Structure formats: structure tokens, C-alpha cells
Amino acid sequence: MIRKILLFTILTCIALPAHAQTDRYCISSAKLTEMHNEQSTQNPDIQRAYNALFEILVANNESGTKDNAGCITQQDLAQICKDALNDDDEMCELFIYAVMTPAKQSAFKILQYSGILNKTNFDDINPDAFKQAVNKTLARRRDKQIPSKLQDMGPAFLENAKLKQIDPFIAAAISMYESTYGTSSKARNLNNIAGLQGAGGYIKFPTVPDSIASQAATISKLSYTKNLTSLANSGHYCAKSVAPKWAADVRSIAMVLYRNYNSIVQGKK
């Protein structure tokens, strides 16, 4: 119920464009172009939501100017969430965040992730809250009958992230993506939760924490940009042809993890 109320509040807030007397949220031409370019890197559900958005803008017959490519109402956004995303609160939040202008994104605290990728000191992260956030994010896995090898591994991610000066949210997100939330055969049989390979193929680790430590050491040697594309292009995780999708998927998981962490911390206050 709390998430339903939150989502309603989000829909209400983002629907306030420059002309406050209407309930239309206007999208600039630059933002529309950005969304078109990013669409192919998103999962099928988000792609359907984008297509629905584009269809509504065309149906509204907006003239399309440099500063205003078109507008959409909060009712339209709610309908997209219902029709294209099956009223999935999490997916709706991610989609709504994606269509926001930077100014409105900065006010969307529950999903705000910008800036943390540039952090180098994570001493302010609450270890217990991070552990809970990792476990909560793992609960998204489809096959809940298979125990996750990443369960309760939040402290290991945080400890190694601090040691190697890397982002623990990104490290955990990469592992969740690479190991199918800790349930892949490599995770179960090799304790390899990050898809790391050696000369003889995928590496077998004595324990999952050993794998997490190796991943942190690997990431620390690489430079990665805000969208993770350079990390993907390093060849450690995927071919260049699929690097943008890999980066987008990892970042989506990181955003969910960070949102879960934020919610837990705020609930403790």
C-alpha cells in the first residue's frame, strides 16, 4: 500500500509542467531524442512503455518545437503503467524516472542515483541497511526455489568496495546480473558470482566472498563511466556489441538496490 501511495505521489508530482494550470508533463525535443536512443537498450517491458509514450505524443498531434516536442498527462502515464507494465510499481518507477527532465530527476529522491558513481568513500553507508537492501533486491529473482549464493553477502560487497575504492552498489549489481541473482550454475557450482574468467575458462572460487574480493580487485583496475559502458567494453563482461544493454541492465539493478537501501535507511530514522 505504501508503494502504491508513493507511485501516485510520483505521478502527481511529475505531471506539473511549466504551465501549472494543466496536468500535462512536457518533454523537450532533446529529451525525446535521448529516450529514442536509449529505447533499444531497455528490457522489453520498458520498450513497450516507451512505444506507448511515443504513440500518445503522436496521437496528441503536438507540433514539436525545439523546446517542446510534446506533452503527456499524468493519466496517460498511469495508463502506460497499467497497460505496458502491468501496474508493476518497480517498473513504473524506473520508467517514470527515465522520462523525467534532469531537474525533476533531482527531486525524485527515492530513485536518485546520480552522483554516487563518482564517490570514492563509502564510510557513510550503513552496513546493516546495505545487507538488508541486497537481500531485498535478491528477492526479485524469478526462481525463488533456488537459494541465492548472494544472500547475506552485503557485508562482503561493502567491505571489498571500501578496500578497493569502488562503488558497492555497482559491484553488487554486476554480480546480480552476471549470476542471475546468485542462482546461475556458475554461482552454484563454482562460487563465481561475477562471470570472471581465467586462461582455463570460468574461475572456481573456494567461497563466494573470495569471488567478491576478486571482482572488486578486477573492477578497481578498470575505469568506468557513469553508464558503465567502458567497463563493459573492457571485455571482462561482454562483447562491445552488447555493451550498452549490459550497462543499462546493470545500472537498472543498481538503481533498485540503491532505492531499497534508501528506503531502509529512511525507515530507520
Report on this structure:
- The chain is mainly alpha-helical and 269 residues long.
- It is built from 13 helices and four strands.
- The strands form two sheets. A two-stranded antiparallel ribbon has the order 1-2. The chain has a two-stranded antiparallel sheet with strand order 3-4.
- A hairpin with a 2-residue loop joins strand 3 and strand 4 (201-202).
- It is globular.
- The two termini are 20 Å apart.
Tell me roughly what share of residues is in helical segments.
Answer: 55-70%
Q: Please report the number of helical segments.
A: 13
Number of beta-strand segments: 4
Major sheet strand order: 1-2
Distance between the termini: 20 Å
Mean pLDDT: 76
Write down the oligomeric state: single chain
Tell me the series of helices and strands, N- to C-terminal. HEHHEHHHHHHHEEHHH
Summarize the SSE layout with pairings.
Blueprint lengths: L1 H13 L9 E4 L1 H11 L4 H16 L10 E4 H10 L5 H11 L2 H6 L19 H12 L15 H11 L3 H11 L6 H6 L6 E2 L2 E2 L5 H13 L8 H8 L6 H26 L1
Antiparallel strand pairs: 1-2, 3-4
Helix pairs in contact: 1-5, 3-4, 7-13, 8-9, 8-11, 9-13, 12-13
The gist of it:
This protein has 269 residues and is mainly alpha-helical.
What would the keywords be for this entry?
single chain, 269 residues, mainly alpha, two-stranded antiparallel sheet, 4% strand, disordered N terminus
